[in-house]
Design brief:
The protein is mainly alpha-helical. It has helices at about 1-15, 20-40, 60-65, 65-70, 75-100, 105-125, 135-160; strands spanning about 55, 135, 170, 175-180.
Length: about 180
């Protein structure tokens, strides 16, 4: 509840502020979101080095592969909820990343989301602390980043501030980035 209250105060201030101030607030929200994502994905569930390495490189393995054949209904629901959570945590991250960057493009944010997700999986593999390294996590995280980019781009366009060709220019009168 504290995080939601802080986010609402920052978002209210964001909408009433100048472009440079909006970028600073978006940057703060991005780093807060990044911290939450890293804690949620990298926090060990057991002592580092003591886990059994489990790597799933089959896309959709928990849903369509032989891996899902022996699952109980509760395990299937858990796999679905985890996949949705993986996508959902990258949506606001991508939105704030897009808003915080001076020269951002949807493509850069999407590649950054993919890179972050792959990096998280590599850290999980190296730590070997009870986390499953799963290609589905990368796919759902990247899908969440894509949704965030689409929402941020649509929001910027509807607000009259979105890129028309994906190019940005610096507005010398404000010293801020304007999208053209």
């Amino acid at each position: 509840m504290l995080v939601a209250a802080l986010a609402s105060v920052l978002l209210t201030r964001w909408t009433a502020s100048a472009p440079a101030e909006r970028r600073r607030i978006a940057c703060l929200l991005f780093f807060a979101g990044l911290a939450v994502v890293l804690v949620a994905t990298i926090m060990p569930t057991q002592l580092p080095g003591s886990g059994i390495r489990y790597i799933s490189l089959t896309p959709g393995g928990a849903f369509f592969d032989s891996e899902s054949a022996g699952m109980y209904p509760m395990e299937r629901r858990m796999a679905t909820a985890t996949s949705i959570a993986n996508a959902a945590m990258f949506v606001p991250l991508a939105i704030f990343w897009y808003a915080a960057a001076k020269r951002s493009s949807g493509r850069r944010v999407l590649v950054g989301g993919l890179s972050l997700s792959v990096g998280i999986e590599i850290v999980q593999l190296i730590m070997n602390a009870g986390r499953v390294v799963d290609i589905d996590d990368v796919l759902f995280n990247t899908t969440g980043a894509l949704v965030g980019v689409l929402v941020a781009g649509a929001s910027a366009r509807w607000g009259g501030k979105g890129p028309k060709g994906g190019r940005h220019r610096v507005d010398p009168s404000e010293g801020a980035v304007a999208r053209t």
